[in-house]
Amino acid sequence: xxxxxxxxxxxxxxxxxxxxxxxxxxxxxxxxxxGLRLQYVHAxxxxxxxxxxxxxxxxxxxxxxxxxxWAEEAGYPAGVIEAMYRTLYDYTIETQLAxxxxxPR
Length: 105
Known about the structure:
With 105 residues, the chain is an all-alpha fold. 71% of the residues lie in helices and 0% in strands.
């Protein structure tokens, strides 16, 4: 994995202060990307004609399976990533249903 120029690798850190700084940078980027993801979640509602198209269990099972695979490829426990994405799933469905209910008919 290529690090941004302003970040140290975990191995280059010399002490907890540097490690915490870099972890904070990573977390900040994760949260920024989740904000971007939420914009896509909102935009997707325009293309979903009904509540069933939001809930689609067949889509979500493939979605979770892909994230498990990506986690394993990254060396991260798949169960942890799946649990995180199941929380995102709950929020995504809740958000999209609320937005769908407000769509002009």
